[in-house]
Amino acid sequence: MSFVNIPLEQKQAVWQELSGIKEQFAARHWFPGTSGNLSLRIGDYASDNFHFAITASGKDKSVSTPSDFLFVDQAGRPCETTDLKPSAETLIHCEIYRETGCGAVFHVHTVFNNLVSEYFGEGGAVPIQGLELIKAFNIWEENAAITIPVLPNYAEIPRIAELVSGVLNPAIPGILLRGHGIYAWGKNAFEAKRHLEAFEFIFEYIYRDLLLRKS
To answer: What's the mean pLDDT in 146-165?
Structure first.
């Protein structure tokens, strides 16, 4: 399905859903400054042909306006005539959609995900074992162990985007950028939100556990 054939009501539903999620995350202070970005895929999917709505660049995410989001294609190009610019990190969303076929990608900056990504950054991954919230990723083994990839936070977004396919693990719906933030995804907005919340709990747990061990 081409973008022009996607019904208006579907586009409006995507905008409404993203707006509600943005409001929830802003209330948790997950968008300091104008940071972070949210996207939700719309229409049919092929790895070389898909579309999604994404937050516009430089917007205050604590307020809602008609210019909060725009639709882009699989290369991150706007699908409609607009003066809005997609988030600077749109290409990373493109690569996650291309590699996973997921339905939503959420990216936030928090103190805990920044600290944890820095602490484990040199090793390229955050190791986690035995935490209950691992079940949020549909991993049910007793004392399960997972790792969350950590990518370098290059100034040039295409350099980051080209690394995504090399570290992405379909079983672990998240990637950290070192000293920057977390990208979490899911088959829809509900699942992506669940995964993001689980990651954030885990990061806070790891940070506090490290403090206790050093005290």
So the answer is: 96
